Amino acid sequence: DGRPGTSESGCKLSEFPMSSNNPSLPQFVETCVEFIDNEGMNTEGIYRIPGNKLQVELLQGKLQEDPSLDIHTLDIQVNAVATVLKNFFNDTEPLIPPSLHDELLEAAANITEPDDESEGMPDKSSKLLALRGVLKKIYPTNYEVLKYFITHLKRVSQHKSTHNMNSSNLAICLWPTLLRIDFTGKTYTDMTQMTRLPAIIVQTLIEQCGFFFHGEDEISEVV
Amino acid sequence: NHIDKFKLSLFGEMGVGKTSLITRFMYDSFDNTYQATIGIDFLSKTMYLEDRTIRLQLWDTAGQERFRSLIPSYIRDSSVAVVVYDITNANSFQQTSKWIDDVRTERGSDVIIMLVGNKTDLSDKRQITTEEGERKAKELSVMFIETSAKAGYNVKQLFRRVAAALPGMEQTEPKKGEMTEVKLKDTGPIEPEHKEGGCSC
């Protein structure tokens, strides 16, 4: 059906038609993100409130035919575009490979520990550096897509006063998409313990986006 | 002084007000902070009914799609499933059929299901009429109520009606320390049996 080949864990990102602006960025992702950047900043609960099912199915079909489609030509609400993008990431290979989950969770656990001031103990900066080190292990295409998407989420979070989606809310609604932790055979009791750290990882990525992805200094106090 | 314990689980799309309904019921308050729920959490509340005292364990779930696969283990020992939609969001109403299906698949008729249309305070944005809600509830043989967690409208009634439909004390003694297993013959509300002198008020 013309769709990129699938592996056990979904289509490989590198097999999608790429954007002319960025050879590592699937056009599908760019089209959705640009629309949400333009239209979604005043929509309460963007990335939280799911889109209308019929609109989601319609847009999914259209974008598979033509990923550079101008979404404005369809009568589609921005929530549906956000859902389509979430579905895209849920259906393709995981952006962050599962083989890195343990290292990431460990790095995140260290970040949540209060700083030990005694000599030789890692401070906040070196903990963030450790997390950045793990991120660098992600293969190039996935890393580029993650960088692009997190940078978009950072922009979204800056409009929190209009749509109420601060970095914490975005992280809660998007970590299951970004960190596809396998819950097979897990109970809700397991889950209560498995949800906090992944959300912290995604929230930290959004808040410290400049530090993780753009070579900037860390932000010491997040407002 | 035996108190029957019942587990009640809330389901529904993200942002329909599941946590707000619990907060209104537990603390009679409304938190204006817009805050998505992380994972799964539970709170307990003792309810003093006319003829007995019960303890309701309220399980709040995050509405994320990816948690849907957990419903079977989640609903297995629940006596009540409260399925919530937002009356200003037609999509959240359509999705309730799926949540109710999921619950029925796991529990058949051994569970009380309440369909809840929340956010009646936003009447100018209403997309789903009360009649549409009632009709769906009738078609699916579930209970129905409209609420506003923000305004405090009908929230107590929601939990009172659910509690009244729970099986009464004539049921077999539950094993100590375990959840009461509920076997309902039908899904309609069960009239609480009036006991002579059972009320001390």
UniProtKB/TrEMBL annotation, chain A:
Gene Ontology molecular function, alphabetical: GTPase activator activity
Transmembrane segments: none
Protein name, as recorded: Rho-GAP domain-containing protein
PANTHER family: RHO GTPASE-ACTIVATING PROTEIN 190
CC terms in the record's Gene Ontology section: cytosol
Biological classification of the source: Eukaryota, Metazoa, Spiralia, Lophotrochozoa, Mollusca
UniProt-listed GO biological process terms: regulation of axonogenesis; regulation of cell size; Rho protein signal transduction
InterPro entries given in the database record: Rho-GAP_domain, Rho_GTPase_activation_prot, RhoGAP_dom
Start and end residues of each Rho-GAP domain: 11-213
Chain spans, region Disordered: 1-20
TrEMBL record, chain B:
InterPro entries referenced in this protein's UniProt entry, alphabetically: P-loop_NTPase (IPR027417), Rab (IPR050227), Small_GTP-bd (IPR005225), Small_GTPase (IPR001806)
Coiled-coil segments on the chain, per record: none
SMART domains hit by this protein: RAB, RAN, RAS, RHO
GO MF term (any one): GTP binding
PROSITE patterns found in the cross-reference section: RAB, RAS, RHO
Keywords of this entry: GTP-binding, Nucleotide-binding
Family in the record: Belongs to the small GTPase superfamily. Rab family.
Name of the protein: Uncharacterized protein
